[in-house]
Specification:
Layout (H helix, E strand, L loop, with lengths): L29 E8 L5 H10 L4 E7 L4 E8 L2 H11 L3 E6 L15
Antiparallel strand pairs: 1-3, 1-4, 2-3
Amino acid sequence: MILLLSDRAHQGRRPFWDRLGTPLTDDRPMLYTAKCFWPGVTEEELRAAVARASGEFRGALYLPGDELVLCLFESASAAAVKQASSGAGLPCERVIETVWIGSGPRGGNERC
């Protein structure tokens, strides 16, 4: 799935690159998804791992039919998410930058 955002979505936000295309550093927390392929995991095992997760952990989607857990973290870096998920015992195979779009009264304009 590809999410396309108009330039308006970035108004008032810090750009990712300067005028010369050099990436800018930004220490603000960002939302990440830790993709965990976890064959045979039970809900109880997942709940135990979630209880061990750090303060960066924001929640998880458990897809038992696909043996997949998608864990949401708010962190300054993907490396910190990988470390936090490993520390909790989550078999994270990939960390993905994530944009949350809520379905609130403003027509889906809410962002986390």
